[in-house]
Amino acid sequence: MDTIGNLLQKKAPQEPPQVAALKAYVLHTYDEPVKVSVNPNYYRITVSSAALAGRLRLETMQIQEACKLDKKLVIQIGSVSS
Asked: By percentage, how much of the chain surpasses pLDDT 70?
């Protein structure tokens, strides 16, 4: 019989569809990888350049509609490497 610890180790966490949509949108549109984190109140996109962050800020409304976001979108400049 499996213990709770064993069951939890086997279960892989799934990212919300909005996170995958945000990553795909930026990668498809700008060919740049991004890091996306989720907070109870917002989605945070971390990008590597100020130019890309500025461009994404101008497109915030389109991104929210295309990715069907249900929270506020925050764009941050920082390290994208995992």
From this structure: 90
CATH topology of domain 15-77: GMP Synthetase; Chain A, domain 3 (3.30.300)
Q: Any idea which residue has 């060919």 for tokens? A: 31
Q: How far apart are CA 4 and CA 46, in angstroms?
A: 35
Q: List pLDDT tens digits, range 21-32.
A: 999 999 999 999
Which residue in 26, 28, 63 sits closest to 46, CA to CA?
26
Residue closest to 81 by CA, chosen among 44, 50, 35: 35
For the chain, list the strands marked E by DSSP.
35-38, 42-47, 72-77
Beta bridge partners of 44: 37, 74
CB 47 within 8 A of CB 77: yes
